[in-house]
Amino acid sequence: QHVDSKWVSSSSEIIAFRKALLDPVTANQFQRFVSLKGDLLGNGVLFWQEVQKYKDLCHSHCNDATVQKKITAIIDCFINSAVPPALQIDIPMEQAKKILEHRKELGPYIFREAQMTIFALLFKFWPKFCKFRSNLPSDKILLALERKKGKKTQKKEG
User: Fold this and answer.
1) Which residues form the RGS domain (predicted)?
2) At CB < 8 A and 24+ separation, what contacts does 83-90 make?
């Protein structure tokens, strides 16, 4: 019985997290929050959102050239960046290589494994973010995160 209720609550948390990533305001707040924990985590939020847009593009039956451009844009930004490090998100090298090998295959699943990896990684920070956010009015969240970022920067410099 206990195991079932735990699973139900975690599946509803997963749904809430997914909705949050699709909401521009909450996603931006969450992205800033996880950026304080590690540079690549902030990129992970953006990657997840861009892959969602890519999947929507695939399902909208737009032309192949547009789909290919979106694949290339995601790869150039997150998987094989001209700016070091080449891999700008926190996924295993094998996943990155697989994406590069399959970059010409159009379809909604090219980034699936990487997106699931990123989702699982980011989801670990969701409860901490919810707790952080619960103590603040929504218009003060970004301000509080900026302050935290400032303190972190001062510590590095000091």
Assistant:
1) 16-122
2) 88/40, 88/43, 88/47, 89/40, 89/43, 89/44, 89/47, 89/114, 89/118, 90/38, 90/40, 90/41, 90/44, 90/117, 90/118, 90/121
- Over the stretch 36-71, which tens digit does the pLDDT of each residue have? 998 899 999 999 999 999 999 999 988 999 999 999
Place of tokens 């090998």: 101
For the chain, give every domain's residue range: 40-149
- The residue among 88, 60, 64 whose CA lies nearest residue 74 is 88
Given CATH 1.10.167.10, say whether it is the number of domain 40-149.
Answer: yes
- CB proximity list for 26: less than 8 A, separation 6 or greater: 20
CA dist 44 and 29 (Å) reads 13
Tell me what the mean pLDDT of segment 87-104 comes to: 96
